[in-house]
Design brief:
The structure is a single chain. With about 280 residues, the chain is of the alpha/beta class. About 45% of the residues lie in helices and about 15% in strands. It has helices at about 20-30, 45-50, 55-65, 110-120, 140-165, 185-200, 225-245, 265-275; strands at about 5-10, 35-40, 75-80, 95-100, 125, 135, 175, 205-210, 255. Strands 1-2-3-4-7-8-9 form a 7-stranded parallel β-sheet. A two-stranded antiparallel ribbon has the order 5-6. Helix 1 links the parallel strand 1 (about 5-10) and strand 2. Helix 1 (about 20-30) packs across helix 3 (about 55-65), helix 4 (about 110-120) crosses helix 5 and helix 7 runs parallel beside helix 8 (about 265-275). The longest helix has 29 residues, at about 140-165.
Length: about 280
């Protein structure tokens, strides 16, 4: 399924704001910017307000019909895992696979060995166009990234295949989310995370890393904006390289969670995606 170059997660917590939210995106379209709406709501949010995914689907469908929206739109099973995804299967066509809780979990020795063996083809260094410092691949680095992320991406593979079995391949958009942790993922981490995603044959179209700084809801970005700018640009370049090198979907793009009210970094992100003609979610 095609998500579009620009997509926007709209959180309609009580299923009353769909028309207003879509009206704003229609205004963007009038101004020449096509943005795909993605109505998102997590299992946690459903439990807090005592709602069901069926209500989110009904609200999205109603807004689209009421306003005559003819573009693509999606309903996101936000931050799901294997314990709760079945609640969303029938109503969603976008699934955010949240595997942050598995970061740092140990992996079987055979899985680590297989990952390291698969990286042999990369050679001792990887030079990514646009990034000055090459990635120097050592056994210690591979052990480190496997120890941090391999179990998480293996779990993402399990969740993806569970959804695929129920809905069919190509019938939904997949995002991999790793943002709800304390430590940010560096561009080097991103490189190996994308390698693991490709190895798991997950056709991820968006990826939500933990960026440098704080992304609290409803307030501006807190952190080193210059460092964020450097890492955001390098993440874009790493994704571009990984798409070509690892065979990931061509429309794979960064997803920025809790992106509302982050006025300090909006110009940074806008400049980077314009510079490289990339999309964003």
């Amino acid at each position: 399924m095609e998500l579009g170059k620009y997509s926007f997660g709209v959180g309609d917590r009580f299923n009353h704001e769909g028309v207003a939210q879509l009206s704003a995106l229609i205004e963007a379209t009038v101004q020449g910017i096509e943005v795909t709406p993605v109505w998102n709501k997590s299992n946690r949010e459903h439990n807090i307000v005592h709602s069901e995914p069926s209500g989110t689907r009904m609200e999205a469908d109603f807004a689209v019909k009421f306003l005559g929206w003819e573009g693509p739109y999606f309903v996101d099973a936000d931050h799901i895992n294997l314990t709760n995804v079945d609640r969303f299967i029938d109503f969603c066509d976008f699934f955010t696979l949240d595997v942050a809780m598995y970061i740092g979990n140990s992996s079987p020795e055979a899985d680590v060995a297989a990952f390291k063996k698969s990286c042999a083809a990369l050679g001792s260094t990887v030079s990514i166009p646009g990034i000055e410092e090459p990635i120097v691949i050592t056994d210690e680095l591979l052990e480190s990234v496997a120890g941090k992320y391999l179990a998480a991406i293996k779990e993402a593979g399990k969740i993806y295949r569970h959804i695929e079995e129920a809905k069919g391949a190509g019938k939904f958009v997949t995002e991999v989310s790793m943002d709800e942790v304390e430590a940010p993922q560096t561009p080097v981490d991103m490189f190996f995370i994308l390698k693991m995603i490709a190895d798991e044959k997950i056709p991820a179209q968006t990826i939500a890393p933990k960026f440098t700084g704080r992304f609290n809801k409803g307030v501006d970005y807190v952190g080193d904006a210059e460092q964020f700018a450097k890492e955001f640009e390098q993440d874009v370049l790493v994704i571009d390289y990984a798409v070509n090198k690892f065979g990931l979907p061509e429309d794979l793009k960064l997803s920025v969670h809790s992106g509302s009210d982050k006025f300090t970094i909006y110009p940074i992100m806008a400049q980077v995606i314009a510079k490289y003609d990339k999309g964003i979610h």
